C-alpha cells in the first residue's frame, strides 16, 4: 500500500464527464490498495469566467478580493469530484485550503506555501476516505484567502505530498509524460521513462511546459518523487527521480517562444540595474562598443517600455532552444554550423555544464528544433562522428 | 452613528450592474456616518446553476458536498461587492462564514445558526471598513461547510445583527416594504410603515413571502429591529418593531396557495400520529363520522402518498386567506356571508385572537382576497356597521 497524491488540472476536470472519468481513475488506484489524496484545479474556463466578472467591476481589482473570488473555482471542483466518488460507493471528503490547513505568505494572487498541516488529511485517510483537496489556494497567517497564481495546483499537490511524506506525487495532464521535445512540433519526439530532477528543472526553466518550474523546484527541495501521467490514457508516464541512474546523456530540447531581442545604447551595467529594479529578467550581452542586446519575454515588453522609453529598439521576434544533456561544449559549433547550412541564423549561444541554449529567430523555431532534435536525440552518434564543417 | 446590518438578496445582486447599484446604496448609508455590515446572497440564478451541476453528477448528491458546492455562490458575490466598494474609495473587506466565524449545527443543507463570533467583525468595523459577509452559510463544530437552506441569507443578517447588538437589520428586497396583502393580486394593497413582530410572524407563517418566517422568529428572539426596504427605490420601507404602538387594528391578509384538501376514513388521532411521524404539518378536522379532512402543502403530497397510500383522496386544490388583526371573532360570519354572496365557498374557518383563516378553493383566491381586503383594510368601518345577512 502506497500513499499517493494525484493532481488533475483544469482540462482533466473541464466537464462533468471529465470529472466522472477522473473519479474512475482515482478509484482504480484506490482499488489497488493505495491511500489517495486528490488535488484538483478549477474546471477549464472557470478561472477566466471569474476574472471576467472581476474586470467588469474594476480593471485592477483589489488583490485580496480577487483571491476570494478565484478560490471558488477549485471549491466547485472538489465538491463535484467528491460527489462522483461517493456515488460510486467510495467514501470521499473534500477539503478547502483552510480545512486542510494550507498556510501561505500574504502575497495575494501569487502566494507561496509555508506549511501544510497534516492532521486532518491523516485522520480522513486513516478512516478510509479518499481526500479531495482544492489546489491553487491557501490562507495567510491572518486567515485571508490567498491564491498561488496560475498553475499553483501542481505546487499544492507537491506540498501536500511533501508534508505527508507521500510515496509519489502524480501530475495528471493532457500529455502522457515528459517528451524529448514538443511532439506537436517534432513528430519524432519520444516520451522519457525517467528524468533526473536537475534536468527536469533545466527543461522547465527553459520553456518545457509539462511541469511548472516552481513545483519541480519545490518537489526537489522536499524530496518528493514526481510522475507525469495522462488523464486520458493508460500508461506509466514519466518519473522525475532523484536517482543518479536517471541522469541520461541527452534529455531533450526545451523551446521558449514569444521573446523579443532588443538593442539599446545604454551601458550593460546600467541596463542590468534597471532590469533588476523592475524585476525583469533578460539575457544580456554587449554586441559592440556602446550597444547592448538583450532578450526578454514578450509579457515584459510593456513594462520595459516604461523603464527604457525611447532608449531601445526591437531587433527581432526570437525563440530559444535549450538542449539539456551531457557534454555540450564540443557540440555547439557542429550544430550551429548545420543550422546555418539549413538557413537558420543562430544569433547567440550560451553553454553551461548540462545545457546549450541557442538564440534564433522565432520564425525558424520549428525547422531548427527538428534539426537539433534529429542530431541530438534521434541520431546522437552522428553528432560525435561528424566532422566540423568549414565555416568562414 | 448607528450600526446597521444590510442584507441584499439574489435579485438585488443579480448582475454586475446590480452589484454596483448595491455598492452605491451601501455607500450612501456609510456617508451618513453609519457602520455597515452587508450580507449578500448568491447572484440570482447561480444557486440553480450549481445545483444543476450537482444533479448531473448524482440525482441525490452527498449532502455535505452539496454545501461545499453551493456556498461558493455567496463567496463570488462578497468578492465582487467588496471590489466595487473599494473601487469607489471605500475600504471594504469580505468575510466568508468561517472567517466571521458563523457556527451552525451539522444539518447539511438546512443548518441552524448556533453562534456568531463578533471579534473579526468588530475589529474590521472599528478600522473603518465596510464588512461584506457571505449569507446562507456556516461551519459546524468540526469545521465542515454548512448551508442554512434557501432564504438563509436573511437569517445570517439577523444573526449578525443580534450578535453585534446592531441598531437595525435592513432587508433589501424587490418590494418596498410589507404590504397589507399581495399587491400583484390587490391593486389597493398599501405599504405598512410599521408592523409589530407578533403580527409579522403571523403574516409570515400564513404565507406572506416578503420575510422568511425563520428569520422573523430569530429576530424577535434576539430583539433585533427589522426593516424591509426596496433595493431598487428610495423609501423608508416597513419597520418590524417590538413597540406596542406598532400593534394596529388590522395588519393585512396573508395568502397561501398550492395546498390540497384531502379526505381520509382514518380516525383523526391515527392521522395526526402518522403526520407527526413523517414531519408533515396539516390542518385537520373531522367532517362527519368516519371521515377526516385535512389540508397540506402540495410539496408534501408525494410524501403523504407514501404514508396514506390508497386511504386518502384529493378533494380540491385550496388556498388559505389569513386576516391578521384585532377582534376577529365578531367579523368571521359577516365576511363568510359576503364571500358566499359573491360565489366563493368558504370551506372552513379557524379563529385565534389576532388571526382569522379562511379555507377556499384555489381558483377563488384572487376574487376572495379582493373582497376581504376591501372589507377589512380599505373600509373596515363598513364591517362594524353592516348587519348580519340572513344565511340559512
TrEMBL record, chains A, B:
The lineage of its organism: Bacteria, Pseudomonadati, Pseudomonadota, Gammaproteobacteria, Vibrionales. ATP binds at residues 7-10, 173-174, 179, 184, 209-210. Substrate binds at residues 47, 74. InterPro entries: AceGlu_kinase-like_sf, ACT-like_dom_sf, AKii-LysC-BS, Asp/Glu/Uridylate_kinase, Asp_kin_monofn, Asp_kinase, Aspartate_kinase_CS. Pathway: Amino-acid biosynthesis; L-methionine biosynthesis via de novo pathway; L-homoserine from L-aspartate: step 1/3; Amino-acid biosynthesis; L-threonine biosynthesis; L-threonine from L-aspartate: step 1/5; Amino-acid biosynthesis; L-lysine biosynthesis via DAP pathway; (S)-tetrahydrodipicolinate from L-aspartate: step 1/4. This is Aspartokinase. Its EC number is 2.7.2.4. It holds the Pfam family AA_kinase.
Amino acid at each position: 500500500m502506497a500513499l499517493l497524491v494525484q493532481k488533475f488540472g483544469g482540462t482533466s476536470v473541464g466537464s462533468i464527464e471529465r470529472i466522472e472519468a477522473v473519479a474512475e481513475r482515482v478509484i482504480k488506484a484506490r482499488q489497488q490498495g493505495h491511500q489517495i489524496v486528490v488535488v484538483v484545479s478549477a474546471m477549464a474556463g472557470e478561472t477566466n469566467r471569474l476574472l471576467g466578472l472581476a474586470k467588469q467591476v474594476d480593471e485592477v481589482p483589489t488583490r485580496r478580493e480577487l483571491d476570494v473570488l478565484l478560490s471558488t473555482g477549485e471549491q466547485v471542483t472538489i465538491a463535484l469530484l467528491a460527489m462522483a466518488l461517493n456515488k460510486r460507493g467510495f467514501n470521499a471528503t473534500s477539503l478547502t485550503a483552510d480545512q486542510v490547513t494550507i498556510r501561505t505568505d500574504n502575497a495575494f494572487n501569487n502566494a507561496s506555501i509555508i506549511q501544510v498541516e497534516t492532521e486532518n488529511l491523516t485522520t480522513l485517510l486513516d478512516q478510509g476516505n479518499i481526500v479531495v483537496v482544492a489546489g491553487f489556494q491557501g490562507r495567510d497567517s491572518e486567515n485571508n484567502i490567498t491564491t498561488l497564481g496560475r498553475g499553483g495546483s501542481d505546487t499544492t499537490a507537491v506540498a501536500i505530498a511533501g508534508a505527508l511524506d507521500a510515496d509519489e506525487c502524480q501530475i495528471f495532464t493532457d500529455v502522457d509524460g515528459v517528451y524529448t521535445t514538443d511532439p506537436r512540433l517534432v513528430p519524432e519526439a519520444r516520451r522519457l521513462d525517467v528524468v533526473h530532477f536537475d534536468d527536469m528543472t533545466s527543461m522547465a526553466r527553459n520553456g518545457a511546459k509539462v511541469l511548472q518550474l516552481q513545483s519541480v523546484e519545490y518537489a526537489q527541495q522536499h524530496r518528493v518523487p514526481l510522475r507525469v501521467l495522462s488523464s486520458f490514457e493508460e500508461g506509466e508516464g514519466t518519473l522525475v527521480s532523484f536517482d543518479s541512474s536517471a541522469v541520461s546523456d541527452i534529455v531533450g530540447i526545451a523551446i521558449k517562444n514569444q521573446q523579443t531581442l532588443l538593442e539599446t545604447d545604454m551601458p550593460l551595467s546600467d541596463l542590468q540595474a534597471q532590469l533588476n529594479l523592475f524585476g525583469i529578467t533578460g539575457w544580456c550581452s554587449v554586441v559592440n562598443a556602446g550597444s547592448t542586446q538583450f532578450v526578454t519575454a514578450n509579457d515584459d515588453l510593456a513594462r520595459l517600455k516604461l523603464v527604457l522609453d525611447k532608449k531601445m529598439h526591437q531587433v527581432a521576434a526570437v525563440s530559444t532552444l535549450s538542449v539539456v544533456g551531457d557534454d555540450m561544449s564540443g557540440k555547439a559549433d557542429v550544430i550551429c554550423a548545420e543550422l546555418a547550412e539549413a538557413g537558420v541564423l543562430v544569433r547567440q549561444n550560451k553553454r553551461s555544464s548540462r545545457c546549450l541554449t541557442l538564440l534564433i529567430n522565432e520564425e525558424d523555431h520549428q525547422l531548427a528544433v527538428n534539426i537539433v532534435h534529429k542530431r541530438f536525440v534521434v541520431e546522437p552518434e552522428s553528432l560525435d562522428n561528424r566532422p566540423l564543417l568549414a565555416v568562414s
